[in-house]
Structures are given as structure tokens and as C-alpha cells.
Amino acid sequence: MSLQYKEALREARTYIQKQYPDKPEIGIILGTGLGGLAKEIVEEKVIPYNFIPHFPISTVESHFGKLIFGTLGGKKVVAMQGRFHFYEGYSPREITFPVRVLRMLGVETLLISNAGGGLDLTYQNGDLVIIEDHINLQPENPLRGISDPEFGPRFPDMSEPYDLELNRRAQEIADQKGYRVHQGVYVSVPGPSLETRAEYRYLKMIGADVVGMSTVPEVIVANQMGMRVCTVSVITDMCDPDNLQKISIEHILATAAEAEPRLTDIMVELIKGL
Q1: I need a surface site. Which of 21, 108, 219, 234 has the fewest CB within 10 A?
Q2: How confident is the model over 207-262, as pLDDT tens digits?
């Protein structure tokens, strides 16, 4: 990690702390069409990304691009409303820059949501999937390059990238509420084109249940920096190579919006119990 990158992280942290001196306990990354959880936060400070030194700027229409600080479920939280992707042209280090800043602000638990395609054909559109493991098919690892022990080990253990207790609690909450929720493996691909029939067959063959274009870089960095992680995907389209339907971003956003209240409900209850 270069001195320039470290200094950029510190400058971003210093700016944020001047705007919001309290220490958030929980970080939330809100995925495609899943910004409704932000409405549950009792806002104390909102900082647009373009105000924060060295912060990336989201280029995806459904990602708003701001940090929301406040309380949720009696806990101090910070939500990223707008995330970054490799397909936008960002490097893995740029994509994960905000995660490092959140950790430097004091965040110890990171909750992530995303929209994904269903490779497990027992899933249905609108189902929720608690991610228990992942496969990284992004072209570069965010830890590649010079390592600095200040930011975690060079070779972080990834035997439990998603916290077992958080996953257990999220499943328990879903079961109590009668929500249809699965547990599965997420594969992260570069995008932005959706996959071909042959690619869907390949992804299923290597053990993936959900496919998406985000999340894994952030989870790798969060693990390196000692954060607990829980990720929930919303299935927005089914990836059946033998019965593949044309899909649009409008369909994906509409399906995500339909599932949003259930995901929000689970996340709020999970935060209350932390």
C-alpha cells in the first residue's frame, strides 16, 4: 500500500470526523434498488461522496452516492447509499476505499445487500439469499500490491468470510417472520454484460448459487481489517440456461423494490440484536 493511498485514506477519515465526530458501530452497503433501508435511519448527518476527499463517485443511476450517519435500532450506523463496481472503470483499491475508511471510523460490523441472478433453480424472483461463501471471478484482488500491516495481514484467512453467527441470526429472523430465505454461494463477475447460457452453466458447475457484479472485493478487505460481515442478496432474475429469458435493468430494479421491505425488516432486526 503506497504512502499516497494511506494518506488519502487518512484525509478522507479526517474530513468525515470533522463533519460527524461520533463513532459508528455498524456499516451498511446498500445495493441496487435496495436503498429503502436508509429511510429507517434517524439521520444525524448526510455527506455526499463528492464532498469527501479521494472518495470515488458512483456512476450507476440507481446508486445515489452519499454517506448517511445516524441511529438505527438503537445503534450508531453509517450507510453507503451508492457503491462502486469494477465495470464502472474503478480499480479494486478504489472500489474498497470506502470500506477501509469505514473501518478507520470505528465500524466493526458490515452489512451488505445486493441484487443477483439465481443460478439455483429452486430459487424464485424476489427470494432472499444469505451468502455463506463466495467465488471471486473479478480480474484482480483488492489486496494485490504492496502490503501494510497497519491495515491487516498480507494473507488474510478466508475460511469464514461471512460471520456464522450473523448469518444464523439473520436466518432465524427470516424464519420467525415467515420470509422465504435461502443460504448460498455468491460468485462475483466483472460485468457489465449479463452472462451467456454457457457462462451460466459454468458458474453453476463451479458451485455458485447467485451471480452478481459486486460485494466480493469489499468482503475481502473487510475480512483483512477484522470486520464481521453479513451479506444478503435479492434474486432479481433467474439464470436458467435452458429457459433463458431476456432481462432489463428496469425488471431488476422492480424486483429488488418488491423484495426491499422484507430485506429491510431482517436488517433492522439484525441490527437491534447487535
Answers
A1: 21
A2: 999 999 999 999 999 999 999 999 999 999 999 999 998 888 888 889 988 999 99
- Number of structural domains (the chain) is 1
Q: Specify whether the CB–CB gap between 39 and 57 falls below 8 A.
A: no
193 close to 128: Cβ distance less than 8 angstroms: no
Q: Which CATH number characterizes residue 83's domain?
A: 3.40.50.1580
Count of other CB atoms within 10 angstroms of residue 112: 26
Identify the DSSP state of 126.
Answer: T
Q: Give the whole-angstrom CA distance, residue 54 versus residue 8.
A: 6
For residue 212, report the phi and psi dihedrals to the nearest 5 degrees: -155, -175
Boundaries of domain holding 43: 3-272
The torsion angle over the Cα atoms of residues 30, 192, 125 and 249, rounded to 10 degrees, is 80
- Spatial CB neighbours of 83, under 8 Å, sequence gap ≥ 6: 29, 30, 31, 58, 63, 98, 214, 218
